[in-house]
């Protein structure tokens, strides 16, 4: 598999408050994230459309790989992404950066000087020449060999020598990041504990749908592969708890911190656990065993195998913090859509990307429940995790279902569906646990 990356976009945020303690090889880290669209003053509808668009772009990327990556993102509309971003610093002295937390990819990268082609960002580009602890990795290094796509650079424009490792990270929406692979010290809170020798990409050419100053500086890969942040910190687990995307409260992410899922759980909530499925041909994704979907009173008439990985590696179900809206294989999406339409008995409104209904004045329709049945754990979504209420320009009330049609047979559980839940990735135990929670109290 090539690729694994995806665009980071949008607004900046908050404070990284965290504590870290390091021993020789392991670390525990507490950081805070913010939703990248928080406070942008978008209407919920605008937010939603952008999320759906983004999810589609992302879904398409999984479908293709390597240099043939492509997806449909209309020019001018490519300002997507509702993502959760973490603040940290790299180098000595530390230079700040803001990276999108992405469990759907491994590589950590940030835009770097000397930029050949970078998008605008609010923070200065990382300047490796100003860091006394930075060093480049040669293409013979094991970290370089872990990359899905790399080459040996000559780096003529810089004083960097021959044989530097050059990575290429592709996005399905034609975005790309190319740069050199290096190591440097990562500091998780200014002036506090740090982790030496973290491998990351210094992005010199970053192009695609990155468009505005509202973007972060790069990505923090939280996937299962060896180059991801959790893998490099050698933690046994990590967890996050996303506060509402439309709110402005910071969200915590904990790496290797003993997590008491009960302490912050909502009253009466039960912790549920489902195994990860290991798929050696794609070591990055957190595959889950999804068995079925229920809309209201109807379990969708699809065999369990619908959501399973095929032998050739197509399909499957993953959980991804970097995708906003859950996407379903097209034929499954149509069944979900039909189920909502027949049970809600409301007029659908025209929308390219979303399933929306006109809500008559004064009506308070009961929305059918939406449940995902995983092996050993049912995710019974609260209303706010799949329904959005809005008004159109003329003041007509609308209600939209926040689920999108994917570009292929893969099912991606996106972050909109993960809000207000404490989610633990137990890497040592090879399982995922989740519980409804008050994320601002974790
Ligand atoms: C790069 O390698 C070539 C051939 O191995 C050598 O002639 C050249 O001096 C090297 N350049 C640098 C900057 O190391
Ligand atoms: C980004 O910000 C800089 C300086 O604040 C400004 O010159 C530039 O036009 C902005 N770019 C975009 C795309 O908004
Ligand atoms: C998470 O991992 C750390 C060590 O990295 C361990 O001390 C802790 O108990 C683990 N927490 C859970 C909930 O498994
Ligand atoms: C992969 O397998 C599925 C079913 O087993 C099949 O429908 C699909 O065409 C195969 N895809 C490729 C690329 O071979």
From TrEMBL:
Q: Which InterPro entries match?
A: Aspartic_peptidase_A1, Pepsin-like_plant, PEPTIDASE_A1, Peptidase_aspartic_dom_sf, Plant_Aspart_Prot_A1, TAXi_C, TAXi_N
Q: Where is the active site?
A: 102, 320
Q: Where is the Peptidase A1 domain?
A: 84-435
Record-annotated membrane-spanning stretches: none
Q: Name one GO molecular function term.
A: aspartic-type endopeptidase activity
Family note: Belongs to the peptidase A1 family.
State the protein's name. Peptidase A1 domain-containing protein
Organism whose genome encodes this protein: Eragrostis curvula (weeping love grass)
Q: What is the lineage of its organism?
A: Eukaryota, Viridiplantae, Streptophyta, Embryophyta, Tracheophyta
